[in-house]
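Ticket opened by: R.M.
Priority: normal
Category: complex prediction / small molecule

The reporter submitted a protein together with uridine-5'-diphosphate and asked that the result be attached to this ticket for the collaborator who will pick it up next week. Submitted input follows.
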Amino acid sequence: MTKVVTILGARPQFIKAGSVSREFAKYDNFKEIIVHTGQHYDANMSDVFFDEMKIPKPDYFLGIGGKSHGAMTGQMIEKIEEVLLNEKPDWVLVYGDTNSTLAGAIAASKLHIKVAHIEAGLRSFNMKMPEEVNRILTDRISSILFCPTQTAIDNLQSEGVDKWNTQVELSGDVMQDGAIFYRDLAEKPPGLTLDREFILSTIHRAENTDSEKRLTAIVESLNEIAEQIAVVLPLHPRTKIKLEALSVKLSSKVTLIDPVGYLNMVWLIDNCKLVMTDSGGLQKEAFFFEKPCITLRDETEWVELVINNFNTLVGADKAAIISAFKEHTFSNDFSIDLYGNGFASNNIANALINYEK
Ligand code: UDP
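Result attached by the on-call engineer:
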């Protein structure tokens, strides 16, 4: 029996677990215990994903949200340690790059419990991003690194992974598994009237929301674009607070909606004309659903999308955003396999069950 404690805390982690936990449930010799740290706790940022994606209800809910980075990470380490002492798993599984990821990895490694990291090896090379710090530290103390792309493996190799006594797997991207599985279950968000082409936009990354200058430029750009095409913006709670304090307001032509569940989100991605986002996950989902993507960041971890011209990076520069919207010609040959074509969760389950060291 392989026993895994999975640490979840934030929306993108629930979405990834939707595919991986479904795969784990297929194996009799596999037991998964789910810990929800509470980093995201609103119904529309958390519960909806457990319900819709049929993720098993968390065995532990730690209730640690809405705190500073240090307080959140510290309290999570302490509480996760208690869970691990109680459960004594073979593995702690962590996803991505949030404070919950790092806290899970630290708590496990101090107890000499092996850490498996899904979405390992990604780098933005911007150490001011809290996510970059979380990724680098988590990778360094993991026993298995599940890399979604060859670029991620190359990044780890240039950091010296060969000397870390760590297994590196090119697993593919679990978000592609989800995109394939949930596509047929997609549902139009209730109450949303859309009778013409639209752009789907999301903004939540701290580098944009916490900078008045960048957020203002993004708002002004969306306002200008909304004069020409409908724009739908599911609003992240952090962005909502920051927008309220901003002197420039979003025009009434931008359709603001509350954060939506994954089935509604898949519908929006599948039906939009273009994605404009600073989200990591949404950049890939745009590709899975064959939509061009304008990324409101200065760098991306998903460089293969930019290299292959499915995505263009415009930062938070109004002229660059408008020019990308009006003039950029994107590739529309989506036949290239960049993310493993939907077998990532299966690869991950097999690697954990067959691990020998
Ligand atoms: N997402 C969602 N509802 C929303 C906005 C985003 O289900 O209202 C999904 C999106 O499709 C993607 C994931 O949330 O699968 C991305 O999460 P987020 O942008 O919060 O984080 P990131 O990927 O940047 O870490």
